[in-house]
Amino acid sequence: MNRRKFIEKAGVLGTTTILPLSCFSMAKRHKYKMGYQLFSIRDEMAKDPVATLKALKAMGYEDFETYGFDHEKGVFYGYKSSEFKQILDDLELSVSSGHYGFSPYLEKSEEDLKRFVDQCITGAKVLDSSYITWPWIAPEQRTIDNFKLMAKKLNLAGEQITKAGLGFAYHNHGFEFEDLGGENGFDIIIHETDPSLVKLQIDMYWVMHSSEHTPKELIRQQPERYVMWHIKDMDKVTRDYTELGNGSIDYTEILPDPTESGLEFYYLEQGGNFSANSMESAATSARYFKKHLQKYL
């Protein structure tokens, strides 16, 4: 399939960390691409990935994080990796990270994990991604012993991915902060993984929802390790997801210093609870972010 057919198918370190963003926002900063986690718009990606990407680009999104890679077939959203990369190139878009299906490999052999990681590396390299991200473990897996096992496997995967020339990160939800008899999964992940091999992707919604710490406090404890951010808002009543600007999280107050964080990429996200539909929510969040938050990044 040629290029035309693809497109036609669519029809500050130190004290600055405790200051408000306004105190350091005027300093010279990298200009990050406005990113979106495509899981937020999974219904539309399932219908027509190319039309969806074109619509997101029109909203101002330039960079994406994928989900749902078919590692056995080497397929993203129904397209071979090379075909999907061509779509991205034609639309002048990028994919800097992907969430890959690591959860089943927590209980599989190291050889099975190695084979899976090799397949992820192949897919990520075709897309010219910078990071492979381990996004979660299943509810039945969330025990202290399994968090310790996961830390071991995070190190193994991180070593393999780093040797391949890519970065590797773990993405938090809220369950990692739950008390499990005086310990929690997040502390195990932080302290039992090698920071040079396992970076962190902080989901600020889940930190504000479930952690005793703020994003700034967590980053202060592990500076330069939080290379990616997820930014989404929290409904004022239900505490579910909502569009940026419609919820209870004041990002002008809680956004960390990107330099201290080690930030390379960020993604807006909304996993559900759309005011109207996923496309309208993506547009609402984009408008709010560009007006109120993008100046800090």
UniProtKB/TrEMBL annotation:
InterPro entries: IolE/XylAMocC-like, Xyl_isomerase-like_sf, Xyl_isomerase-like_TIM-brl. Coiled coil: none annotated. It comes from the Bacteria. The keyword Isomerase applies. The keyword ATP-binding does not apply. Keywords: Isomerase. Residues 53-255 form the Xylose isomerase-like TIM barrel domain. It holds the Pfam family AP_endonuc_2. Transmembrane segments: none annotated. One of its GO terms (molecular function) is isomerase activity. This is Sugar phosphate isomerase/epimerase. It comes from Agaribacillus aureus.
